[in-house]
Amino acid sequence: MTHYCDIAPGHPYHGPYHDAEYGFPVEDDERLFERLVLEINQAGLSWLTVLKKRDAFRLAFEDFRIERVAGFDDTDRERLLNDAGIIRNRLKVEAVIHNAGVIQGLQREHGSFRAWLDLHHPRSRAEWVKLFRRTFRFTGPEIVGEFLMSTGYLPGAHRDDCPVHRHILAAGPAWQRA
């Protein structure tokens, strides 16, 4: 079985993501939201497609500013659905906007999206999936698992012998504290 640690190093898109982001703890709510948006949009597509469109996503979703995205209206929805730079799927666009509003509620109730994640950690992957399905839209097992691995809440982003793995351990991911 090929692992991300085998294909990513040296690749112009996978390499930087693998080496500097994938599996590292994320503290900023906008960056957490970005990861959730990217994972939602990856469903049914390759991760390379999403990484190539990442800059366009940042532009289309105003650098993933939760307050702005939560306030998107029908004009914004149409703009997004006509933006060839991103993945133009109505269900995904609607989920992103809805989920931004949900995150605003979590921020009001818990102080931040990250605090909400920390409150529910540790959980098994199956428990996380149930929680996300109750809380968000368009969050199936693969999306939730990758989101949580990519942000340091679940282990498995890197093989133990991957050179990046020791940097992740030094950064203190949530799964290590479980």
Structure description:
The protein has 13 helices and no strands. With 178 residues, the chain is mainly alpha-helical. The model has no long low-confidence stretch (mean pLDDT 97).
Question: Which labels suit this protein?
Answer:
178 residues; mainly alpha; 0% strand; Adenine_glyco
Sequence-ordered SSE layout with sheet pairings:
Layout: H1 4-7, H2 14-20, H3 29-42, H4 47-52, H5 54-60, H6 66-70, H7 74-81, H8 90-110, H9 113-120, H10 125-135, H11 141-150, H12 163-171, H13 174-177
Keywords: Metal-binding, Zinc
Protein name: DNA-3-methyladenine glycosylase I
Pfam families: Adenine_glyco (PF03352)
Mean pLDDT: 97
**What profile does the largest beta sheet have?**
none
The CATH topology comes to: Endonuclease III, domain 1
What's the quaternary structure here?
Answer: single chain
- The level-1 CATH class: Mainly Alpha
Given the structure, what is the number of helices? 13
